[in-house]
Structure formats: structure tokens, C-alpha cells
Amino acid sequence: MAGQPIRVVIADDEPLIRAGIRMILISDPEIEVVAEAANGREAVEEARAHAADVVLLDIQMPVLDGLSALPELRRAAPAARVIVLTTFGERENVLRTLEHGGAGFLLKDTAPAELIRAVRAAAAGDAYLSPAATRHVVERLAGGREAARAEQARGRVAGLSDKERDVLALLGEGLSNADAGKRLHMSEATVKTYVSRILAKLDCENRVQAALLARDAGL
To answer: Where in the sequence is 4-aspartylphosphate found (predicted)?
Structure first.
């Protein structure tokens, strides 16, 4: 890329939006807008025809919307890096963009300087996400960790007997031994015995750890 301008295709069904993006990008001497497209199908064709380095892709367009065009773009112009630039920052849009190989996600209220930075970053092989998009990704990763923790917890409690699972579930609700006994029609001493057995089986140091494990396992 040294010495060569970054070749950009702008895909948006609104001519005024395309014109505004073009004016921003061409203010950088190292960026060249090589084509414009009014729908996703044209975006695929223009990116392939002009060997685009970066495609700025709107989501809501006729003929073929941006998210549907994205995987086709990745096949037709594999060297092109795709940045979704849209008014709609919903979590699903962000995640689908990344799942389909998008290199960035920006909202249309992005500052001009940030748009230029995003194009430069994408051309250099980096990902560029707006703060809102980054937040969605962090939430998704956190959700993934929660899913892994839940699966691990379910595996740990799988070896408990039905009655032990019942007692553990009540620990997860924060019940005392006495209250758990009333719920399960057991004496407090019997519940205490079950709790000791559960802690040993689950390798938990105390009932708080066991309660957290119960919550993670969905009991």
C-alpha cells in the first residue's frame, strides 16, 4: 500500500449522504473514492470492478441490503475491507457485521476525522468500531463467558442426587438451613448434613460458593 492511495467504494442509497462522505474522504490526500453504489448489489459489483481496498456500506438499501451484501462482498472482493456505516446501531447489526467478516462498524453521526481514521485502520488490516459497537461486543463476550460458566456449573452439579440438588437450589435462593428444612419437610439437622455433603462433593469452601454455583447452574 506504500505510495498507493486507499481505494474506497461508498455504498448508500441516498445521493446526499454519498456526496457528504465523498467530501470528507477526499480531504485526505491518501484516500481515493473510486466508485459509488446505490444498493448492495452495485456495491459488490463496484468493489470487484475497482479492486477496492475499503467499502463503506450502508445497511438499509434497496435490491440488496448491506448486511446481506456483506458476505457476497467478502467472496467477490476478498481483499476489500468492509466498514458498515449506518444510522442503526442495534446490537444485532453490530454482531452480524462482525460475524460476516466486516472490518468496522460506524454510525452516521461519526465525526469526519473518525471516519477517516476508520478507513485508514481498515486499509491497514485493523478493525474499527464505534464506542456503541464496542460496548455491544463486550456484552457479547461477557455473555459468552457466562455461558461457559453455566456449562461448567451444570457439569459440577450433575453428580448430586435429586435431594442434594433440591437442597442446593434452596441455598441458591439464600435460604437458611431451617427455612430449607421447612420447604423440603426435613429437620434442620438433616439439611445441615446435606449441606456438608454438597460442599464436599462440589469442592466448595462455604455455602456462599455453593449458592453461587447453584445460580450459575440454573437451579
So the answer is: 58
